[in-house]
Amino acid sequence: METDYVFPGRRVAAVSMVLGPVLLLIGTLLRARFDFFFPSQLRAMSEHPALMTAAYTCFLAGNVVLWPAIVALATRIGRTRPALAAWGGLFVLFGLFGRTFHAGIDQAALGLAERRGAGFAEGVVSESYQDLHLFSFLSFTIMFGWYVLAFAAYRAKVLGVVGSIGLATMGLLPLGVLKGTEFVSIIGTAGLCVALIPAGIRALLESPKPSRRTMMLTAITVPVLGALAFASTLG
Q: Are 26 and 192 in contact (CB under 8 A)?
């Protein structure tokens, strides 16, 4: 039997719209007290490892959690503006992949700072900072994609003026490895909250109540996934 289901599902997208922006904002605020450039970020990791680990982990988690929200938003836009939806959605997703790649480098560098000292980590990062890789050629999508998607959302009347502007402010976030927080970083992540959280809450409230079978399956699946997540850390 066919349904009108659209991946990854309305409820998953709604949770993504709420949780993704909140995690990005928390990560941005946690590292706001430290200077923006990578030497200061590495020194902060040596001196405040728990705080910096929490900051970078929250930002990475928000970046990953956000993709269902972008897919759902692009799908809605595509009903009336398919070309804009495709370009904007793909650019933003490529940008999220790029930031995730940068987060892997961040993790390695911050680990060096914690174990070998900020000076050693700074030397390694400074020597390899300009190395070319696949995402060097896609860096423009990290910022430019948000402007395209925001314009598309406005043209398709999926978001209003305020929401579209909030979405566009994400293009202000600095990109690259070991970037800390600037004032525009807070504007961008707060703007994303303004753009997506109300839509996510509305979608959750309007979603049909899950069936008893679905709730039972979820109750069984969540502990299993938790065990698999723990097991994944042992390899």
A: no
**H or E stretch at 148:** helix 139-155
Give percent of the chain above pLDDT 70. 98
What is the per-residue pLDDT across 36-51, written as a single tens digit (0 to 9) for each? 999 999 999 999 999 9
Residue 103: which domain range? 10-210
- The span from the CA of 131 to the CA of 109, in Å, is 15
- Does the residue 50 lie in any domain? yes
Is 1 a member of any domain?
Answer: no
Q: Give a yes or no: residue 187 inside a domain.
A: yes
Q: What is the pLDDT of residues 99-158, one digit of tens each?
A: 999 999 999 999 999 889 989 999 998 888 888 999 999 999 999 999 999 999 999 999
pLDDT above 90: residue 214: no
What is the rounded CA–CA span in Å between residue 105 and residue 110? 9
**Residue 25 burial by Cβ neighbours in a 10 Å radius (0-12, 13-18, 19+):** buried
Tell me the DSSP string of 104-141: HHHHHHHHHHHHH-HHHHHHHHHHHTT---GGGTTHHH
Q: Is position 79 within any domain?
A: yes
Peptide bond before 8: cis, by omega within 30 degrees of 0? Answer: yes
Closest CA to 90 of 161, 133, 156, 138: 138
Give the separation between CA 173 and CA 132, rounded to whole angstroms: 21
